[in-house]
Task: structure prediction
Amino acid sequence: MLISEPTLREKLEENYSHLFESKFLDEIIKVGFRSSIKRGGLLIDIGEEMTHIPLILSGVIKIIRKENKKELVLYFLEHGDTCAISFANCINRQQSIFKGIVEEDVDMVLLPVDKIDKWLVKYESFRHFIIDSYHFRLLEMVESIDDLAFLKMKERLLKYLKNIANTSNDLNLEITHQEVATDLNTSRVVITRLLKELHDEGKIYSKRNKIEILEN
DNA sequence: ACATTAAGTGATT
DNA sequence: AATCACTTAATGT
Result:
């Protein structure tokens, strides 16, 4: 996709103009690569090195922690977000500690590492953006830990489902019990039973490959 | 019609 | 809440 495509500036302005001055947007457009990944695609895997920092224009990315075959979903990234962890990874040439899977077709601009250092000094807005991103991700991470420690699986499940519904702006989720189980690092049987309970309580409606959120 | 994949369930730990 | 073992239902070829 060409960087000069007219929609790029519009999309950038739509998501980042309240953060970045137009002079900075010009630079982003000049050196950034427009890129897109389809649902199911891999943005980054654990152990890989990142060479670019993504600014997400649309779509959703699922951030996962993985430890010997077991997985746990930590949070989702959407338009206006960036992968905060990638900054440190880029600057220090460190390997990613997360896996990023595309949950909904992603459209993004990739910023090359070598520009990042200069921009951090040159643009206060960018500096603040990075620090804010880090802060927000830290809060999300703490929330994940809290959920893990203090919530029962049924509560975690409902929260997880609502979270997806929110980020994707759709109360109808196309997802299997197995996928949910994998994301929450539990077994399919457990999810099936809890979904049935939530269904009977009128909080959701579920059938094969489909879960609808009925309450907010 | 048959095979495959998704979901439901009782019993046990 | 996890695991096993099995059944039933939905879907693809």
User: Anything to note?
Assistant: The longest strand of chain A covers residues 52-67. Residues 176-178, 188-189, 192-193, 195-196, 206-209 of chain A lie near DNA strand B (CB under 10 Å from a C1'). Chain A has two domains: 6-148, 151-213. Chain A has eight helices and eight strands.
